[in-house]
Design a protein that fits this description.
The structure holds 2 protein chains of 2 kinds. Chain A is α/β, with parallel strands linked by helices. Chain A is about 45% helix and about 15% strand. Chain A has a 5-stranded antiparallel sheet with strand order 2-1-5-4-3, with helices on both faces. A 5-stranded parallel sheet of chain A has the order 7-10-13-6-14. Chain A has a two-stranded antiparallel sheet with strand order 8-9. The longest helix of chain A has 30 residues. By secondary structure, chain B is of the alpha/beta class. Helices cover about 30% and strands about 30% of the residues of chain B. Chain B has 5 helices and 7 strands. In chain B, strands 1, 2, 3, 4, 5, 6 and 7 form a 7-stranded mixed sheet that branches. The longest helix of chain B is centred in the last third of the chain and has 14 residues. Classes of the chains: A alpha/beta, B alpha/beta. The interface between A and B is large, with 40 and 38 residues.
Amino acid sequence: MIIPKFVNTAFSDHLIGYALLDNVFRITEHNRNFIKFLNLHDNVREKQLVEIMPEAIGLEQILQEMLDNERSIFTLPQVNRFLKDQQIAYYNITFYTTSLTDTPVFVIIYDITEETRLKQQLTQQKYEIELLEGQSFLQGRTLPNSLLGNSEPIRKIRDMVQHVAQIPKATIFLNGESGTGKSLVARLIHNGNAISTRPFVEINCAAIPETLLEAELFGYEKGAFTNAFTSKPGLLEEADGGTLFLDEIGDLPLKLQVKLLSFIESRSFRRLGSTKELQVNIKLISASNRNIIEMIKKNEFREDLFYRLNVVNINLPPLRDTGQDIITIARNFIGMFNIDFKKNVQKLSANAEQKLLNYHWPGNVRELRNVIERAMIFASGSEITSQDIHLYHLSPNEENATIEKILNIPPEGIAFEEIERKLLDSALEMANGNQSKAARLLHLSRDAFRYRLEKYHVI
Amino acid sequence: MTIQINRKICLLGMYATGKTSLIRRYVHNIFDEKYLSTIGVNVSQKLLPPLETSNNKIVQFNFLIWDIEGIDRNNKLQKNYYAGSSGAIVVGDLTRKESFEVINGLLSDFSTICPEALIVLAGNKKDLLIENTDHPQRLKELAAQKKADYLLTSAKTGENVDELFLLLAHKIKDKL
């Protein structure tokens, strides 16, 4: 059938494409816009609609209802099509019934790109605002619940967190073994007060090379040193209005300790290569798993800085000192891994609980999580038994026995340097390549450790 | 002989739950951190691996995947997107409780239009899941209530994304 001229005139608008379908939904007629909107190049007459318009797949029943006069109109609003430049075009696709026997269905595609792009921008803004509001609400609501347990030390920490969270410029020092949740508590302190939508900037002083740490913390001006091609604000500036969390502060080099002390006293600093004094308003939280008092005695940490950092001291207890909290936390992990692994473990057996309570947990909560995760992988019933619980570290007595065994020199003798090299390798492996941590594992200073690495060409 | 079958499936869920990201990960194996809200619907295609039916036939689905914007339940035209669907993946965001609260309403509308369609639930953004939140538990309860399967997914890492679509494919295949 030839489309009457008046139809072509009526639909000559560049925003409308159309096609006529026969009673087996083949295209009999269409205008230029129809193939343009569908990104087609050839004439599509005689082709099945579903071949050229994937949106029509699944609509067979709807179209049949139109043929049977049970429905006269059907619209798919705002159908997206990606253009070559990755922009999106939007179309309303509407099917109408006609009174024509040969071409009972008429498809019109309306190009609504312009107004829909505007709608998209407005919707995007609205959703982004809602998401931001939701995030701050979520953090505020869920993080306090993350500090599980009802033991005296944990209740005391919760109390302290609530107090210090209210003080915008507080300086807090967190002390505790590795895996006791220092980073979590720092975030709790940050989120627990009115500045929770402000930045939380965390830096691990042991993870950044000494040479970069100063520039990272204080920022630098263009030309301050070789490769300083542009100016860059430091983490202090990024944390302005929020919280700066300096983890593993014990690894901060002495030179930087002086500069940090100066900043804490004046709350102002200068970028590297700048004479301009900058001021920031931050809550400063620092943390260490090392004995800072011992470090002060060995002149490895400045006493005056420690007293400035240690205005509020929160000592995080090792897991072994939290008694029944071990079981509370383990049950929480079981609930979490039940969902993750689609299991239905209901409880720990009495023996399993006792095994967890008897263990000394050198890796604290992090280790407990790993132990429960492993137990959940292999648990087959509704209960975790003591056989499912595999503990990685030896008890202190067993450790001493092992050291005795290592130190027994075999009759044929042993190469001392080989042992030393193996110790360096093992320590680096345990510390995931972090040299400061590895040095501490061997009770060596970082310099002494590095000297040995170079001596044995380990790095 | 492999029989190729076209099947339309819909991804439903509140805005910003990661429906578009799940599809982009599944179809193109890409992920973009930037959030771009979908307006209307975008249809993608993916040819799935061949599957064997219970009567030993080999079928291969070509999924027409309808990425549908966070639905306005009062807009009747938007429900036209559901017509002819064989299944739906309903996506919640594991970091937002409210994204699970709308699932019942969405499923009710969807099932009215497609009563025979099969449903799988997804808790997306697993990579951002904060320990001790009860959102996965809520997903589990919803799945039990609707007698649907569920998976925790991450469009960002790709975790369980292929499995999610394959899970729905297997359910559709079992009903052939």
